[in-house]
């Protein structure tokens, strides 16, 4: 059994810093890059598996699969927001080489997550018992399939809870690259194996069981990786401290508010659609929602890496640095998000038809959901900066209030008023715009004594101008091939992508990164592209 004296001092690396610990300058681009690379792998899974389920199992069982993942989100809430606290404390204790504090934080969080695991198992059984009630419009023959599928998916989510402490160590060391390597391996293996199972006649229960096995295996790999990059870490009950648990729960509670808000808004919305409209309609609605949520997660991968950065600037009292971070990260957030939103708005119908077939086309639903995220998506980094400052309580509370209003609106619209998918989409779009698109950035500007007008001008003007050629290309393609979804999508995205890449290369990519890319590619002339017109 370990004790503080045994791990008080540094054990490896120059100047007491363990090996493989990156500098901040090198880690930000690497973390953002690897987050996106692994998310593209996740995106492939999210596109391929639903299509195969629809082909092999039918539309209703695809709705059951979507419904099961909505329940998974509630099990994930049992992490109580403490993963973000582990991330923060590991980063701080590592910086000052306080290995006693690090071990106390990680083991206290692990003890909490083990308790959450037990609750998650019980919650899984409750969900299974409620399946006939929640899916009362489903074919009775599919109820047994739904029960086993939901049980296995929610058990996998419960198994993942204790691994949250391990992931917090990796992200606290800013080793998103290693974490993402594990995630990518799990996702690639899963999509290949799930595809094989579906093609060979196995059902939802089989691919849900495979998902459970993959999560357990990935957890074991993460433990091995953490032991390599953090040799100072010890696992023992003697490191658990009640005071640390209370402190981490206090910090994590603010994050948990946002988690409850987003889970309640997105997942209760889905459950209400399933209850009032049935799993077949849910399968259609979920495809529009899935595209938007992929964009949400993509931007979340970008914004999360700025939590440690803002924490360091806040610790130094560098208000000017935080102001610049807020404006810069939001500007690049708009550069990333606006082309995605434009694609959904202009090419929503062709995109759904090519991906899932014409029966899943609901372009107006996708447009409403996309417009509802137009302001919130690019400004995800504002919330991450507030998390790093430890000032995210107020916007989280506002998100929770907005989510409660949205869920209430959805229940009334679908139940009492007999509304359809459009009502459900509006019940998501309005709260997201208010809480994530308006309140969070306004509150960040207020805390940092930054003019909202100055912030909006710095963050929004250049991205809007830069995306216009891409929008024009998409519109021309829709006009030129109105009866061919594939051609409109292929030529619109192809031509628009080339134009967008050229505009972004000249006006958006920082000169230093542009020169670095050019050197790697051996294209010396590209290093001398004029920068006087670059949008700042």
Q: How many beta strands in the DSSP annotation?
A: 0
Q: Overall mean pLDDT score?
A: 84
Unreliable stretches covering 5 or more consecutive residues? 1-25, 526-536
Overall number of structural domains: 2
The number of helices is 18
How much beta, percentage-wise? under 5%
Helix percent reads over 70%
Q: How can the largest sheet be summarized?
A: none
Please state the overall shape, judged from the principal axes of the Cα atoms: globular
> Separation of termini?
55 Å
Radius of gyration: 24 Å
* Protein structure class: mainly alpha
Oligomer: single chain
The ordered H/E elements are HHHHHHHHHHHHHHHHHH
3D architecture notes:
With 536 residues, the chain is mainly α. It has 2 domains: 7-12 and 19-240, no CATH class; 251-467, no CATH class. It contains 18 helices and no strands. It has helices spanning 24-57, 59-76, 82-95, 99-134, 143-172, 176-199, 204-229, 242-277, 279-303, 306-316, 319-356, 363-372, 380-389, 393-416, 421-447, 452-480, 485-507, 511-521. The longest helix has 38 residues, at 319-356. 49% of the residues are buried. Residues 1-25 and 526-536 have low confidence and may be disordered.
């Amino acid at each position: 059994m370990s004790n503080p004296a045994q791990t008080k001092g540094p054990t490896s690396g120059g100047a007491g810093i363990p090996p493989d610990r990156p500098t901040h300058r090198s880690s930000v681009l690497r973390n953002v890059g690897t987050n996106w690379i692994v998310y593209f792998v996740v995106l492939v899974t999210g596109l391929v598996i639903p299509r195969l389920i629809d082909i092999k199992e039918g539309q209703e069982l695809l709705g059951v699969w979507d419904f099961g993942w909505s329940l998974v989100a509630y099990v994930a809430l049992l992490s109580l927001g403490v993963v973000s606290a582990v991330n923060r404390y590991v980063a701080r204790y590592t910086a000052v080489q306080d290995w006693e504090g690090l071990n106390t934080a990680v083991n206290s969080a692990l003890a909490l997550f083990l308790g959450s695991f037990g609750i998650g198992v019980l919650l899984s059984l409750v969900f299974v018992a409620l399946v006939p009630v929640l899916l009362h419009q489903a074919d009775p023959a599919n109820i047994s399939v739904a029960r086993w599928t939901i049980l296995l998916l929610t058990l996998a989510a419960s198994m993942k809870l204790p691994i949250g402490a391990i992931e917090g160590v990796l992200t606290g060391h800013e080793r998103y690259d290693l974490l993402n390597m594990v995630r990518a391996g799990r996702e690639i293996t899963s999509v290949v194996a799930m595809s094989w199972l579906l093609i060979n006649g196995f059902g939802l229960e089989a691919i849900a069981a495979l998902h459970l096995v993959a999560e357990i295996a990935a957890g074991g790999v993460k433990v091995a990786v953490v032991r390599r990059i953090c040799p100072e870490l010890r696992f023992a009950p003697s490191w658990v401290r009640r005071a640390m648990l209370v402190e981490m729960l206090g910090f994590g509670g603010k994050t948990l508010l946002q988690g409850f808000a987003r889970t309640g808004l997105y997942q209760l919305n889905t459950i209400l659609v399933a209850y009032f409209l049935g799993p077949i309609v849910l399968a259609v609605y979920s495809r529009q929602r899935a595209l938007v949520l992929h964009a949400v997660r993509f931007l979340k991968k970008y914004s999360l890496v700025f939590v440690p950065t803002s924490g360091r600037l806040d610790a130094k009292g560098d208000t000017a640095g935080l102001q610049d971070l807020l404006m810069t990260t939001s500007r690049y957030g708009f550069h990333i998000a606006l082309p995605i939103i434009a694609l959904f708005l202009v090419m929503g119908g062709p995109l759904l038809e090519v991906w899932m077939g014409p029966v899943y086309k609901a372009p107006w639903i996708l447009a409403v959901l996309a417009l509802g995220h137009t302001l919130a998506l690019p400004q995800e980094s504002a919330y991450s900066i507030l998390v790093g400052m430890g000032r995210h309580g107020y916007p989280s509370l506002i998100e929770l209030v907005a989510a409660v209003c949205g869920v209430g609106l959805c229940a009334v619209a679908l139940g009492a008023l007999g509304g359809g998918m459009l009502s459900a989409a509006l019940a998501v779009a309005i709260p997201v715009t208010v809480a994530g698109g308006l309140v969070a950035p306004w509150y960040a500007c207020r805390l940092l004594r930054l003019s909202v007008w100055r912030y909006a001008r710095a963050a929004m003007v250049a991205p809007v101008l830069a995306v216009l050629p891409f929008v024009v290309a998409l519109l021309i393609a829709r006009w030129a091939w109105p009866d061919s979804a594939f051609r409109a999508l292929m030529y619109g995205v192809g031509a628009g992508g080339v134009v967008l890449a050229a505009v972004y290369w000249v006006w958006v990519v920082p000169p230093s990164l542009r020169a670095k890319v050019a050197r790697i590619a051996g294209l010396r002339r590209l290093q001398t592209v004029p920068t006087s017109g670059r949008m700042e």
